[in-house]
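Re: the multi-chain job from yesterday

Posting the exact lines I submitted so nobody has to dig through the queue logs.
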Amino acid sequence: MMDSIAVDGFIASIMAAESMPGCRAILHGPGGCRMHTTRLSANEAIRPYECREGPFFFGHPRVPCTYVDEEDYINGADYKVTELLNLIDDAEVCVVVTSPGTALIGDDLHGAVARSSFRGKTVIPEYCHMSEPAHMGYDSTVAEIVSAVCRPTERVDDVVNVVGLPILLEGWRETVDELRSYLGAMGLTVGAFVGAGCTIGELAESTRACVNVAILPEFCARTAEIYGRMGVPTIYPGAPLGFDATSDWIRAVAEATGKDPDGALSMVDSVRGHASNVLTSGLHAGVIARGATFSVKLENSLALPLAQWLYEYLAMFPVCVETRGWWDDGYRERMEAFLDGIGCGDAIGREIGKTRADAAFAEGYTAKILEKRGVCSVGVDMGKPSKVRLRFRERPVLGARGAMRLLDDLFNDLAQ
Amino acid sequence: MICCHTDALTLYRDLRGGADSVWDYVSCTNLNDSSSIFGGLESLRSVVRERASEGDEVVFVVSMCVPGIIGDDIVGCCAELSEELKIKVVPVPVDGISVGGATQGRDVCVEAVLDLVEPAKTKDPALINILGEYRAYREFNSVFDESVERLIEDAGFRINTVYPGRCDISDVRAMGKAAFAVKAFDNFTFSKTADLICDRLGIKLMKEPLPLGMAAAERWLDEVASLTGRDLDGVKERMRSEYEGRIGRIRERTEGKTVLIVERPSGKNDWFRELLDDLGIRVLKHRESTYNRWVMGHDAAEGKEPHLSGHVASDVEDLSPDLVMSDIYTDLHIKTRCRPIGRPQPGLAGILDYAERLGRVFNAPALEGWRSA
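And the result, structure tokens for all chains:
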């Protein structure tokens, strides 16, 4: 038996709050719910460490927690939220996230906020998102922060925002750098990487953008709706995973903004050329992958470009594409059409844990457990939850640099 | 649910371990908002039936916060499932935090596990149970098993079961065969757990835990000798001679060095002070933290001054120690040479390994490059 090992909406909601400097997640729940999120925030939303001693923090600055105990479940503990907020002096926005258990006890969080001396903006998500997938918790929380912080303003032609890039995604910082460089090469300025490292100041001014460009659509559906109400449309070029999808992403942005994509495309081509050189000069090492099989269990918006890229670039064949709850029927149709077109229509419907493949692309633990059990020869770690806890070298998934990382992981292990 | 699916530390340990995965053993009912209203027992029944269909004979059901708050009757449900499936479905109704902290939860679980132990008509004096995973929380792994196994063997024992720690159901069932048990570590809460286990099983619990440091090893061997009538003087002499030879060489590097110590009141670090003495290291100041009431016991924590890293920083300025050793991780950000006290592995090899590492630290840069950036 193998359960799904994926980040859920509750964890994602906390990470969304932690994704923007100037914004803090405040956890109203037991200490046991804090341990993991504190570490995750520290590892993914890296900030300079500042020791915070005393109650609620106990030495670690991120995701302070009310440490609800069994008596609080009976008597209520909203006073702890007030006391905690009174201590916050380094954030412009606080998101008060309740744990699954605390969400049931009906604490008056709005009253607790009103009674506190915290004078920044406070967001109280309506749900704890425990029973929802990661993208629901992440998107919904970012959307609520956007609602609280942003107001409509005059739009500027050469400014775009990037939305739907969760910091849960492996190598999100490198992806931010890479996408910024492509947009810069087209003469565009990024107003805000919304939910991916933008400051609250940048977020407040993000409604001046002429357009939002989506990365993973399911991670920004609600956010895009909020921006839409403030006059900022969102385009969905598909996730830039692999060389071709990255180029397509650039072309879509250029078309939406009326810019020339050539400079940015040549940057992708340069990396693509290097990859070809590596594969051909290593006595055509690329042929190792030809005809090899792969399985995928990822966010749906990553699964399609990944499957297309592995097939078109390396001539690998999907034997299992394990889907999540679909957010977009049209997307599923495209996936099915692609798989049918290459004679692999039966890949959907299989379970990754029961399908032998040469390579499995999945969240880190799932990938490594599949590898360990011999279900695949190489399990490519695509992100959290992952065995990789400290990241010193670049490990992006998206963009041309992400393609190089995936090739590196795939070939160096597959060859063994 | 998060409690199960994102326990990164469990998963991390899992992947470092043997061939099996924790996901072969842990299933989750994945309760959702609907379960919070209508109850989660149907999900529980479904998961347990699936486990039974895969051949599991014993299933423990541990309840988290939400089932506790909504009042799911997991005890009754487990009884029904045991009857229906003809396997043992054992409820562990901790209800998340409702029984207290992690240590209280552990005791509830241990009680449930002990129901599986088979009664033994006779106890084997050559067998000993180790209570607790002695490898947990030790820095580095270089002397993992060798140190403890040699000690146990030198004392004339064979390890029967390591629980809680590394064991399967058959090991648990066999726990009652051992005449003796020893704690892997010694703290307020774990001692209560060890008492609970030995009282239930009628096993003699050694007073001394697995020994940290040379003096404790000698005391431990003396206790074994007194409990079993074995002559262990030769073992002690051999260990002492090896210890003094190795420590003497390390002392050439540590003699006259100074340290400032911050330790938890619950630390029971006699081994550490003995080692500092043996290495000729002088303690300039000793501080106690107030962490933590669960491990120390509430009474011991009462009235303690809150520990702040600022106090230690000020001590460093006044006293200029060669090294700060602290079990409070926030102290390790003080801008001077520092390291945690931690713990050695039990046994001779463990303390010698620790001493070697400590000896080297005095030659380390006061501020590593990454900390001075």
